[in-house]
Amino acid sequence: MHRPALPSPAATLPRRRSAPPLLVIAHGSRDPRHAAAVHALTGRVRSLRPWLRVETGFLDFNAPSVPQVLERLAAQGERDVVALPLLLTRAFHAKADIPAVLHEASARLPQLRISQAEVLGPSPLLLAALQRRLYEAGVAPGDKRSTGLVLASAGSTDPEAIAVIAEIARELRHTGWCAVRPAFASAALPRTEDAVRTLRAEGVRRVAVAPYVIAPGFLPDRIARGAREAGADVTADVLGPAPELARLLVERYDEARVPARAVRALAG
Q1: Most exposed residue of 33, 88, 113, 215, measured as fewest CB within 10 angstroms of its CB?
Q2: What is the pLDDT of residue 95?
Q3: Exposed, middle or buried: residue 130 (CB in 10 Å: 0-12, 13-18, 19+)?
Q4: 138-235 under CATH 3.40.50.720, yes or no
């Protein structure tokens, strides 16, 4: 006898009325792996908060765009939304692009109150996700004392963002690695391959490269290529849908649910 399929546990959970939707804002890319990784991450967030509505919007290249998602939410009767930049540092996109998009949407949709969450980094959860990827790539915890690490980020022209990467490299040095060097795929120096070669010149026998980026794409490919060309022993994967990253998104969402941070209020 055929029995109808039972609904998933998530589908049976009522949504909490007091919980505004979470809009995750990703940069976007022509590389289809980028959007796939972002959707995998937001899917993991939904598994952590089955009652929370989680949407994804892109600044460029991919659909739906951030304004499209906000217009749909407003049309469906939502009155509040938390917009979370899927960014690791407070660089140009966090300081200019995203606030401009949200302020414009707020002006067009006065019935929708938009609160902007902080960027993801820095956070101990990001360091945990980074080390998870290194362990998955073959670096055992006992190898750290004999392994030099290159912390390879996308890069930025923003001094604040560069300083954050340098500080994270210093923090990682205190977790057991014999040496840690920051590197950048664009806009700043050194490049990944130069950092690997510097560690070799300093006598480090084993070198691992950790991409401090969320999703695959052009710049992460450049990091991997530089690591390969310079002879790095291990290159970890991007952070992607790491469980620590999903937990961090939930943490930033919870922090952002403060009325004083509403975009409408900031707009005056």
Answers
A1: 33
A2: 84
A3: buried
A4: no
* H helix intervals, 139-188: 159-173
Compute how many other C-beta atoms are within 10 angstroms of the C-beta atom of residue 238: 22
pLDDT > 60? residue 171: yes
User: What is the average per-residue pLDDT within 50-57?
Assistant: 98
Nearest to 262 by CA among 15, 51, 20: 20
pLDDT digit string, tens, across residues 99-122: 999 999 999 999 999 999 999 999
- Among 253, 239, 191, 186, which residue's Cα sits nearest to residue 211? 239
Residues 6+ apart with CB under 8 A from 218: 29, 31
Q: Which two tokens stand for residue 213?
A: 């980026």
Instruction: Quote the CA–CA distance of 268 and 249 in Å, as a whole number.
Output: 27
Mean pLDDT of 28-36: 96
pLDDT digits (tens, 9 = 90+) for 58-80: 999 999 999 999 999 999 999 99
Q: Distance between CA 144 and CA 26 in Å, rounded?
A: 33
Give dist(CA 43, CA 141) in Å, integer.
29
Equal CATH topology for 9-120+243-266 and 138-235? yes
What CATH number is given for 9-120+243-266 in this structure? 3.40.50.1400
Structure token pair of residue 163: 């300083």
Integer Rg of the chain from CA: 20
Read off the pTM.
Answer: 0.88
CA–CA separation, 176 and 15 (whole Å): 44
